[in-house]
Amino acid sequence: MNVNNLSPTQYIVLQNSKDGLNEEKARVELDSMKDLYQSFMSTCYQRCLTMKFAAPEIQSGEGRCLHRCVQRYMHAYNVIGEVYDKEYTKIEETME
């Protein structure tokens, strides 16, 4: 398999499966990343881009708005991921 043709998300899933992690966990992670992407694309697009389409490119203010919007989503995603990882670790430890 040529890893150069994989998306970053596919590469992460491949690495997780190589490291012996549960395939289901990798699938859930991939689905979560897809949902995150779709969510911030929809929300940030509606919030930041005007529907006038006066210029063929994103305007400066729109670009800053998109950047901040995506940063907020990614920050929230990371915080939730850290909490999930801690809880998952606790559950695994109690099962041993």
From TrEMBL:
<keyword id="KW-1015">Disulfide bond</keyword>
<comment type="similarity">
    <text>Belongs to the small Tim family.</text>
</comment>
<keyword id="KW-0496">Mitochondrion</keyword>
<dbReference type="Pfam" id="PF02953">
    <property type="entry name" value="zf-Tim10_DDP"/>
</dbReference>
<feature type="domain" description="Tim10-like">
    <location>
        <begin position="25"/>
        <end position="85"/>
    </location>
</feature>
<keyword id="KW-0862">Zinc</keyword>
<dbReference type="GO" id="GO:0046872">
    <property type="term" value="F:metal ion binding"/>
</dbReference>
<dbReference type="InterPro" id="IPR035427">
    <property type="entry name" value="Tim10-like_dom_sf"/>
</dbReference>
<keyword id="KW-0472">Membrane</keyword>
<keyword id="KW-0143">Chaperone</keyword>
<protein>
    <recommendedName>
        <fullName>Mitochondrial import inner membrane translocase subunit</fullName>
    </recommendedName>
</protein>
<keyword id="KW-0999">Mitochondrion inner membrane</keyword>
<dbReference type="GO" id="GO:0005743">
    <property type="term" value="C:mitochondrial inner membrane"/>
</dbReference>
<dbReference type="GO" id="GO:0015031">
    <property type="term" value="P:protein transport"/>
</dbReference>
<comment type="subunit">
    <text>Heterohexamer.</text>
</comment>
<dbReference type="InterPro" id="IPR004217">
    <property type="entry name" value="Tim10-like"/>
</dbReference>
<keyword id="KW-0653">Protein transport</keyword>
<dbReference type="GO" id="GO:0045039">
    <property type="term" value="P:protein insertion into mitochondrial inner membrane"/>
</dbReference>
<comment type="function">
    <text>Mitochondrial intermembrane chaperone that participates in the import and insertion of some multi-pass transmembrane proteins into the mitochondrial inner membrane. Also required for the transfer of beta-barrel precursors from the TOM complex to the sorting and assembly machinery (SAM complex) of the outer membrane. Acts as a chaperone-like protein that protects the hydrophobic precursors from aggregation and guide them through the mitochondrial intermembrane space.</text>
</comment>
<keyword id="KW-0479">Metal-binding</keyword>
<keyword id="KW-0811">Translocation</keyword>
<keyword id="KW-0813">Transport</keyword>
